[in-house]
Amino acid sequence: MSLTASVSERADAVRAAAPLVHCITNYVTVESCANAVLAAGASPIMSDEPDDVDDITSICGALVLNIGTLNKQTIAGMKVAGAKAAELGHPIVLDPVGAGASKLRTATACELLDTLPVALVRGNMSEIKALAGNAAATQGVDVNPSDAVCDEDDIAEAAVFARDFAAKAGCVVAITGPIDIVADATRAFAVRNGSPLQGRITGSGCMLSALCGAYAACAGDAMLEAALAAVVHMGAAGQEAEARMGDADGTGSYHTYLMDAISRATGASLAEAAAVAEVA
Amino acid sequence: MSLTASVSERADAVRAAAPLVHCITNYVTVESCANAVLAAGASPIMSDEPDDVDDITSICGALVLNIGTLNKQTIAGMKVAGAKAAELGHPIVLDPVGAGASKLRTATACELLDTLPVALVRGNMSEIKALAGNAAATQGVDVNPSDAVCDEDDIAEAAVFARDFAAKAGCVVAITGPIDIVADATRAFAVRNGSPLQGRITGSGCMLSALCGAYAACAGDAMLEAALAAVVHMGAAGQEAEARMGDADGTGSYHTYLMDAISRATGASLAEAAAVAEVA
Amino acid sequence: MSLTASVSERADAVRAAAPLVHCITNYVTVESCANAVLAAGASPIMSDEPDDVDDITSICGALVLNIGTLNKQTIAGMKVAGAKAAELGHPIVLDPVGAGASKLRTATACELLDTLPVALVRGNMSEIKALAGNAAATQGVDVNPSDAVCDEDDIAEAAVFARDFAAKAGCVVAITGPIDIVADATRAFAVRNGSPLQGRITGSGCMLSALCGAYAACAGDAMLEAALAAVVHMGAAGQEAEARMGDADGTGSYHTYLMDAISRATGASLAEAAAVAEVA
């Protein structure tokens, strides 16, 4: 199957299956994450209480762990939910928000990655480097500009790093930025969808990780293709939203247009918009 | 007084009184809930710390308890706030988000309902069935399609169930879905306002429960009429928002239009839009 | 430098420096706060876990403490973060949401103000009066109408109060309302920017406090000028958003337009919009 046909098929599968997605995510962008999951045709449920997550994750099809505003209770909830998802064979998506920016974030993300059968990690390059044990210099929750994959020269090196990380971590990785890199241990893809305006609102990364949960729930064995489709979904929506910006519009309208575009995307529209290429 | 005159009077009463509404609600949709309360002309205050809620609920006119992201601390806060509201005679609105989806949610909602003088319960049919002790199969935070009240054939049975639940629980119940059922122990009403787009964003139910708090604060002895007016307010806004959707719009714009419509509604506009009928 | 030139310079400095701002803020308006900081050209990071805040605040340029949904854990986080910011000489902005409405809120705000070298307090008049030990009657999180600075007659008295408060607290104070008063121990300014619609959405005050954090991070010794510029930024955006309201628009659209306007403001546009006068 062609890459674009695969993207199309994955997006339609999410709308057809409407999976429940259990999200333990930060309180900053949680409403946008829930709306993004709904916009893609899936259904979110948020629960972080350790005594609640076992039941909740059991009725879901995937689990998203996002450490954006981690605290001791939610970390405990993540571990309980992760163990249950592992037991049930539900795919787990990890968003290591701010890994590299604090010891607790780096250690928590690494522990979750080491102890749970994570299926997909989605982060910016600084965060993924921090997980890989590299000397990372994450700038808060933003990528360090020196880490970002911005042009052709960066892609080959990033692809090697991504495949290597995926091999060691035993999962798929989606490293998003100006150019996104999605890889498993053997294959890497560059995605040239997206808009610089996505970085001017909070939650673009978190929403994508939540979308990854929806796609992962329907992925079966095709986790790489599912991650790729989710990245295209978000990036294409980012572009469509940018194209709609009017003279008086700013970041508030952009946020609205982005959600509109996520909700309007179809398999066919994403296949048309997808700018994906394999990296040797 | 006619039903529509009652809706009109209730909506105007909220704008005239501008009551303070204490909300202990989930962190997913909390900003939308606060904005919905403001949009209806009331004023929200959120507080869940057990050491804070006593003072806060004392200065308010109603208390809304929403268990959407319950945790041990907020449950403790709900109990303290509920006891104080009970002592002061403030109406309590309960939204049992996800009851039936986990043991903790079902048990917590039942405990709050059993131990507090709840004035109004607002949920979807799966959640209310879970509270009633029926074998419920809540799908996460969504209604199980087999439970939803969708057409004329479902209404009579739902009305019987609702009146029975209201009698046993000693409160008013608003069961929302494609067709909403609002009942006390002796009377039940079907509301045919609303839009299917409300289910495509997060928080429609939570916002309605918060609105119920604003209406309950001004209800006096007319809790059934107040609940009915709140349900009409939300449903009419949902329809108005749908009517405004343009070619490029999606769920982001719908959310904005919905809040716009909540904020623009008046007693007169709601009386005109109300599609309410008593169910024998 | 003229007042308007100073506003312009401060706004441009934030966009040029793009400081990281550590926010420990309530979960109601946190996404809007993060988006407001981004809209002003800075970068927010939210973290309240006591074991995380030390590292996070170290990499930031300012710390914002907002007690809107305080609980024991976030209070502990505020103290740890505040001590670290103090050690590093980072400016601290305090938003005493609801001070006067509960004993815990008043006591927490006073303790933070007394024990930390707070650079700037931003609140409504009822909240600031509560901090000053006056008999305050905060209405939930809203100003008591009898406290609000609404016309010329109120300004002189408010300016005296503000300068006195600033002198005693050893910081700059921004008291916002229909007319805003910004003062240090020796000078006070009245700002006549803003729109009544800001009070019809949640988070106008919180967003301003978050903006104050961005401006404070670039303030150097000019904290009064920085606070003034932040207040003008929010107020001018509030006016621009109001001017854009169409026939079908309500508070949902207003929120979007407000964020749009915050993000589109430049030093030049703010200098042109600024309605600032010193109060003798």
Can you tell me about this structure?
Three copies of one chain form a homotrimer. The longest helix of chain A has 21 residues, at 223-243. Chain A has one domain (3-279): 3-Layer(aba) Sandwich (UDP-N-acetylmuramoyl-L-alanine:D-glutamate ligase). The first copy, chain A, is built from eleven helices and nine strands. Chain A has 280 residues and is α/β, with parallel strands linked by helices. Chains in contact: A-B, A-C, B-C. Chain A binds chain B through residues 20, 27, 30-31, 34-35, 38-39, 43-49, 51-52, 54-56, 59-60, 73, 244, 255-264, and chain B through 26-32, 68-72, 98, 101-105, 139-142, 200-203, 248-253, 255-256.
Task: Give a concise summary.
The first copy, chain A, is of the alpha/beta class and 280 residues long.
Q: What can be said about the biggest beta sheet of chain A? A: 9 strands, mixed
Q: Looking at this structure, what is the CATH superfamily of chain A?
A: Ribokinase
Largest interface: A-B, 34 and 34 residues
Low-confidence stretches of chain A: none
Q: Percent of residues of chain A in beta strands?
A: 5-15%
Query: Given the helix and strand composition of chain A, which structural class is it?
Result: alpha/beta
Strand order of the largest sheet of chain A: 2-1-3-4-5-6-7-8-9
User: How many helices of chain A does DSSP assign?
Assistant: 11
* Element pattern of chain A in H and E: HEHEHEHEHEHHEEEHHHHE
What is the oligomeric state here? homotrimer
| CATH-defined fold name of chain A | UDP-N-acetylmuramoyl-L-alanine:D-glutamate ligase
Q: End-to-end distance of chain A, in Å?
A: 19 Å
Helix content of chain A: 40-55%
Cofactor (chains A, B, C): Mg(2+)
GO molecular function, one term (chains A, B, C): ATP binding
Protein name (chains A, B, C): Hydroxyethylthiazole kinase
InterPro entries (chains A, B, C): Hyethyz_kinase, Ribokinase-like
